[in-house]
Amino acid sequence: MSSLIDKKVSRRRFLGISSCALATAAVGSQVTVLRALAKDGKVGEPATLPTRDVFTSCEMCVNKCGVIARVRDGVIQKLDPNPHYIKSRDMLCARGNAGHQSVYDPDRLKYPLIRTGERGEGKWRRASWDEALDLVVKNMNRIAEQHTRAGMMFVSTEGFQEHFFLMLAECFGSPNTLRHPSLCLASNIQGFGATFGTNPTPDVLNADYIIMSGANRSEAFITPDTIDLIKGAGGNRKVVYLDPRFTKTSAKADEWFPVKPGTDMAFMLAMIHVIVKEELYDKQFVADECVGFEQLVPHIEPYTPEWAAAECEIPAADIARIAREFAAAAPKAVYYQGRRSSFFDNDTQMRRAMAILNAIVGNWDVPGGMVPNGKIKLAEHVYVAPWYDDVPPRLDKDCVTYLSEKDGSWKHFRDRVLEGQPYPVKGMMVYKQNPLQSVPNRAKTLKMLEQMDFICTIDIAMSDTAWYSDVVLPEATYLERMDPVESLSGILPVLSLRHQVVEPLFEARPNLWIMQQIAKRLGEEVYESFDYTIEEYVEHQLQHLPEAQTMLETRGVYFESERPTYGSSRGKRLKTKSGKIEIYSEKYAENGHDPLPVYASPAAVPAGKYRLIVGRHAYFTHGTTQNNPFLHDLMPENTLWLNAGEAARLGLRDGRMVRVKSAVGEQTLRLEATEKIRPDCVYMAHGFGVLSKGLSRIHGKGGCDAELLEDNACPISGNVAMHQTFVEISPA
Amino acid sequence: MKNKRFAIVLDTRRCIDCKACTVACKAENNVPLGRDNHRNWVTEEPLRGSYPNLGQSFTPGQCMQCGNTPCERVCPTRATGVNQDGIVTVEEKKCIGCKYCMTACPYNARYYNEEIEAVDKCTFCAHRVYSGRLPACVETCPTKVRVFGDLNDPQSEVSKLLAKNPHRVLKPEMGTKPYLFYLI
């Protein structure tokens, strides 16, 4: 096993460089702090002549778009799109443009904080890094002694420095890492993975026919998909869009259907029915590349368009027509799988139906079809985690059929922490994630936090979760640190590097530094895995790619080709049991799940109630950017969307405050009476109704969906089901 | 050197109202926060039809860099002018903040900037343009709604787009001869 770098050399270099860098940072930051404060809210001159341009990549959401930061006198003036960055197609969205506000926001976390009052009371005292880190490690060790190392859980979400956090969990010896996918796309990955052996990417740019179920690409940005979707507008491109809301994607789609929530699978099965019955599928492709088609034929017999029309409230004639158009456009036709949280507890099976529909028209690995992702290989950082005896397996082990080992399932994990079974989890390290906003049933999450002996949160702002912690550690923002190179997979894979743009303000530090400091305190054996600088780490990642180093320096991105390669997986063994595309899944049958997707109607909306639905926004990323001054300016609070007819029936006027009540919680927010939603649903944007007073702009504004949503989950993937909650509305 | 006639051509069919342009402009030009303060905006047009037969479009807007400038005519101090390339300008030092120009502008394209104590508005990011770059809103737009260029150059993208496509201007009845063209 090769280690990342030679230990002895690195130790010396690491110490030398770090003390030096810290000295500069201290001097530099005093000056920049003053400038930042002077700049706060005041108008300066336009960013005419930056003194320095720095390539970096955005971290305002998950897309990692290419950015050029324009810096003058040590202050970031403006973030512009990087024209070389092929993934983001030379663009930057509202969030990306607001990025530097997270650096100069007076609300940002500035120093380590230690709680002095009750949890959630908001009483803190400023601590030195040494004191805060000593306290963190003291608690980690105490919990390990009292409850085994599994008694500490490590909560994180994706980002260029998450790797170091997960490494710390492993080196500390806890199996309990809990990431975001069970709140996001675990069911999607599972459903497509079971069918194709991988979760492919739809080739939006070249597709002639695209169907989307709730993938609101005009607002829920994914690069390059959002941009590619629009490029075809007015041409041969046809976009069919299903969503209970009239979104900005509806406004751009050729056809919009306000589908009844939870019935998309009926629509897909009926499309399959028509395509199979009328023999519109790709016979050669199905014979060569798929298994289980013969089981599909009798299976889809009852799923006629007429049957589906009654379920999903889309006319049978339209379903049949769309099925024919889709098959005719194939293989340049995709049922776009989206990339969002699951709607219902049968979500994995719904994704299976979607995958099967894609497969039978033969859109596999061709222009305009479903393309398996390419990835540029980086040198791996091999480390040896210490071995600890008597550590039990994951707390949520075996809670669902296919649990992702590092990601876990939030719903089940939290339930088991609350039960204290099979063993107690009493300590929590949090990096970037904000479960109080992101996990349905906030009351339960609060209970989980209450029973913890110790919680430490690393973040750039006082999130709700930070607000309920015992120690809060301020991370440097993405513009204040150098990050590892990230290999971004896709149809056109790229390497992305985040160069440091400015020195960290105040006492914020990069996550690697924080991890190193904790590792040092945990002991030599743990620290060995962290003994390098970020520059050394990056150099090692790129050791086999000298051309990448140059291109990352000169263009801020690295790619091997500007044109996609298609067909490389055709005729090759896929990563499924049979090595082929599995229409019928033996694997699911063996584990007691339906081997072909079986439809069940969603529970009906009870009289006097509404189904609460969630969705994404072009201005906000989940619960993280609502307090950003520029973005807050666009939308200072969320509203409850209610169909205008329903509002009139209830005698509720647009703009008045309403109380929304579900089985698990209650929130008050402003009503928006609108035609843009089905009469049986209500919607609110995510990320408001925050508990933390450290988010001064949005505290006390709007309502929190996580407070209202019930915590149902998919039994196959453990993904939460976001659309199974009914609410009552009354005047506030 | 020959003068230019700068213009923007917009394909609003591509606009998804993501407000990237609005935020880019705020960042580039230090526009103070507050939704009444804007150089650049996107209008969400009223919904067409009723549920479930709905349609909606979005119209980006900014100073129209008019060929016939009502703002210039009413300015008592000649703070507002037009430069050699057709960009309508405001001289901060000459502006006394009387707001006549704001009243005169049919496009509501001007706002009073409390912090510089002068009226402010879109300048086509002249500081960027004259250093060889695109206006911030044009460069950042995810779906490339906007195309910026010189109408005096028949080979420019804007000239070609206007030659090939039917287009309109906003509020033509005002006779302001705007240089923002919207493709139909």
TrEMBL record, chain A:
Q: What is this protein called?
A: Nitrate reductase
Parts of the chain that traverse the membrane:
none
Signal peptide (residue range): none
Which part of the chain is the 4Fe-4S Mo/W bis-MGD-type domain?
51-107
Which cofactor names does the annotation list? Mo-bis(molybdopterin guanine dinucleotide)
- Cite the entry's keywords alphabetically: 4Fe-4S, Iron, Iron-sulfur, Metal-binding, Molybdenum, Oxidoreductase, Signal
Give the similarity note.
Answer: Belongs to the prokaryotic molybdopterin-containing oxidoreductase family.
UniProtKB/TrEMBL annotation, chain B:
The UniProt entry, under CDD domains, shows: PsrB
Keywords attached to this Swiss-Prot or TrEMBL record, sorted alphabetically, are: 4Fe-4S, Iron, Iron-sulfur, Metal-binding
**Superkingdom of origin:** Bacteria
| Residues covered by the 4Fe-4S ferredoxin-type domain | 6-36, 54-85, 86-115
Does the record carry Iron-sulfur as a key word?
yes
Where in the sequence is the signal peptide annotated?
Answer: none
Q: Does the keyword Iron apply?
A: yes
One Pfam assignment:
Fer4_11
- What name does this protein carry? 4Fe-4S ferredoxin
Q: Which organism is it from?
A: Desulfuromonas versatilis
